[in-house]
Structure formats: C-alpha cells, structure tokens
C-alpha cells in the first residue's frame, strides 16, 4: 500500500515537501555584508499523510535570500567591463546571485535541452508524411490527392481535439511524465504506421498521432513559463523555436539519405522514414521523463537539492507568480471561462497567419 502511495505522489507531482520545516540559510555577501541569523522560513505547516505541505501562496516572507548588495565600485566595474557585457549577452544568468546562477544553469542544461529535442522530433515527425507521399506512399496505397488530404485532415482533427483536455490533464499529472509519455506514445504510433496495409488504418493512426502530439507544444510552453521569468523566457523561447527550424532544415536531406539507403529493402523505402523517426523519438521521451523538473512547487528533479528548490520558489515569489498550481476546478471557474470570450479571438488570428 505504501508503494502505491509513493507511486501516486511521484506521478501526480503533488505539492508536498519531504521536510517538516524549511529554514533560510545564512548568507555571507562577498562585499562584507553581515551574516544574519538563520530564521524559520515557514512557521505554519500542516501535515497530510505524514508529509508537510509547503505554503506556496505568494507572500512577503522570502524562501531564501537572493538579494545582491553591490557597491558603487562593483557596479561601475560591471558597466565598464566588456567581458562582463559579453557574458551577460551570451547568458543572462551572469550577474545574478551565485545560488540563482547555479539553479539557472541546471534549468538550462536539462529543461531547455529536453524541450529543444522534443520540439525537434515533433517537427521532424510532422514532415515525414509529405516526403513519404511523393516517394512511394501514393503508389503503395493507390492514393489520390483527396485521399492525401484526408490523411492530413485526420491528423489535424486529432491535434485540435487533444489540445484543451491535454492542458487540463497537465494540471493533474507530473509534467515530466506526461510530456515524456506523449513523446513515447507518438513514437510507438509512428512505428505502427509501417503496419498499415490500407488507407483506413492509416487514417486511424494519423488521428491518434495528432492527438498525442497536440499536447506537447502548449505543455512545454507551460513548463518553461513556470520555471523562467518574463525576462528569461524570451531567449529560451527563441532556442525552443530554433529546434523547429533545424528540423525543417535537415529533414529534406536526412529523409533523402534514408530513401537512398533503403531503396532495395524488402520494406518500401518510405516506411523507413517512420522507423527512423520512432527510433530517435523513443529515447528522447525517456530522457524527458528523467530530466524535466516539473513546476517549482512540484519539482522532484534529481539534480535539485533543497536549496535549489527554495531558489525556484523564491524566483516565483519575487515576480508575484502563483506558486500553487493544483487548485480544484469549480463551476465558478468554468463560468468565468465562458463569460470572458476574448481568448476565442486568438485561434482565428493564428489560422489567418498560417
């Protein structure tokens, strides 16, 4: 029974700390700041199944001290230092508190790499159907142009249907397991594509492929926005988008090389495109499950120690962000959603820009 309770906590990513009390660490500033006594960070805590729930509501009480008291001399040196400006340009963590730099470096190393790899394989996977169609798939299935449009339409329908429930599920399941699970599912469905002997089965596989791919982009954007500040998200979002461009850049030459390599195979060459995409997607899905940190209030990442978790919470507190992400859905929230319909203007604008 204890095993299943731990498994539930691990998969759902509950906002529970493993310690009873969280205390601020004493801080020694390099410029001679006096050491302050260690104070209790959280005075009130409630026990739930022998675990302590951190109060993740935004408050004035800091989780950990990340302030920097820089002298005018140090500030002047930074303003006049070309090396500092170059470092700041290359990585915006430069100049932050050492504890925050350490935290941000871990985020960039794991979360950013995982998001870029995932978005890369997603876009690579989306482009393979067009290449396959003009390299033997149309003859294999005896397809007309309209039937190819049906293949694309079934994927699009699945993609549209899956987005809203996907984001709702993301608020109840650990993000790293959910996003990694999506990558693994679409890699398995990509493999199933080679078993389709008729168009009807291909339509079904493409529908579910779109369904499972639909949650990745909004889910990863949610995860990036939960861990980075507004000033940091712009550059990370650019790196995230670059992965899509790289996939578009190399997909043509890569797929052409595969078609030439397996042109004499007993399996139709176009099917090897799907095999290759699945082979590289599956390990990236496993990687995502291991390295994505979840949100600051639910993280259990192996590379974060207790100090890092406090830094993550403090960074969110400083920008006034809501830390508790697991609120119940109520009829009041549902009615508010449909009462304010401004967000419904966004889809037509997006489709108009396509």
UniProtKB/TrEMBL annotation:
<dbReference type="InterPro" id="IPR020846">
    <property type="entry name" value="MFS_dom"/>
</dbReference>
<dbReference type="InterPro" id="IPR011701">
    <property type="entry name" value="MFS"/>
</dbReference>
<feature type="transmembrane region" description="Helical">
    <location>
        <begin position="238"/>
        <end position="258"/>
    </location>
</feature>
<dbReference type="InterPro" id="IPR036259">
    <property type="entry name" value="MFS_trans_sf"/>
</dbReference>
<dbReference type="GO" id="GO:0022857">
    <property type="term" value="F:transmembrane transporter activity"/>
</dbReference>
<dbReference type="Pfam" id="PF07690">
    <property type="entry name" value="MFS_1"/>
</dbReference>
<feature type="transmembrane region" description="Helical">
    <location>
        <begin position="148"/>
        <end position="170"/>
    </location>
</feature>
<feature type="domain" description="Major facilitator superfamily (MFS) profile">
    <location>
        <begin position="111"/>
        <end position="354"/>
    </location>
</feature>
<keyword id="KW-0813">Transport</keyword>
<keyword id="KW-0812">Transmembrane</keyword>
<feature type="transmembrane region" description="Helical">
    <location>
        <begin position="270"/>
        <end position="290"/>
    </location>
</feature>
<keyword id="KW-1133">Transmembrane helix</keyword>
<comment type="similarity">
    <text>Belongs to the major facilitator superfamily. Allantoate permease family.</text>
</comment>
<feature type="transmembrane region" description="Helical">
    <location>
        <begin position="177"/>
        <end position="195"/>
    </location>
</feature>
<protein>
    <recommendedName>
        <fullName>Major facilitator superfamily (MFS) profile domain-containing protein</fullName>
    </recommendedName>
</protein>
<dbReference type="GO" id="GO:0016020">
    <property type="term" value="C:membrane"/>
</dbReference>
<keyword id="KW-0472">Membrane</keyword>
């Amino acid at each position: 029974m204890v095993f299943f309770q731990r498994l539930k906590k691990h998969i759902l990513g509950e906002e529970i700390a493993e310690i009873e009390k969280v205390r601020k660490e004493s801080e020694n500033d390099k410029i001679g700041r006096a050491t302050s006594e260690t104070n209790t960070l959280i005075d009130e805590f409630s026990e739930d199944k022998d675990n302590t729930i951190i109060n993740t509501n935004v408050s004035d009480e800091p989780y950990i001290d990340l302030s920097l008291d820089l002298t005018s001399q140090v500030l002047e040196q930074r303003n006049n230092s070309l090396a500092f400006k170059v470092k700041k340009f290359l990585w915006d963590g430069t100049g932050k508190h050492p504890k925050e730099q350490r935290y941000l470096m871990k985020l960039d190393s794991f979360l950013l790499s995982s998001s870029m790899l995932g978005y890369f394989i997603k876009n690579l996977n989306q482009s393979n159907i067009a290449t396959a169609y003009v390299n033997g798939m149309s003859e294999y299935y005896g397809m007309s142009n309209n039937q190819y449009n049906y293949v694309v339409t079934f994927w699009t329908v699945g993609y549209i249907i899956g987005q809203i429930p996907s984001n709702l599920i993301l608020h109840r399941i650990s993000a790293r397991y959910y996003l990694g699970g999506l990558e693994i599912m679409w890699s398995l469905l990509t493999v199933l594509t080679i078993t389709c002997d008729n168009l009807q089965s291909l339509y079904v596989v493409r529908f579910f492929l779109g369904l499972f791919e639909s949650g990745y982009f909004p889910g990863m954007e949610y995860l990036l926005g939960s861990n980075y500040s507004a000033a940091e998200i712009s550059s990370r979002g650019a790196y995230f988008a670059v992965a899509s461009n790289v996939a578009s850049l190399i997909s043509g030459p890569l797929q052409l090389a595969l078609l030439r390599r397996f042109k004499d195979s007993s399996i139709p060459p176009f099917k090897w495109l799907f095999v290759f995409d699945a082979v590289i997607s599956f390990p990236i899905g496993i990687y995502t499950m291991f390295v994505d940190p979840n949100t600051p209030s639910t993280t259990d990442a192996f590379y974060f120690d207790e100090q890092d978790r406090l830094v993550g919470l403090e960074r969110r507190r400083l920008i006034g962000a809501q830390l508790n992400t697991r609120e119940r859905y109520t009829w009041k929230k549902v009615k508010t959603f449909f009462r304010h319909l401004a967000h419904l203007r966004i889809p037509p604008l997006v489709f108009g820009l396509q």
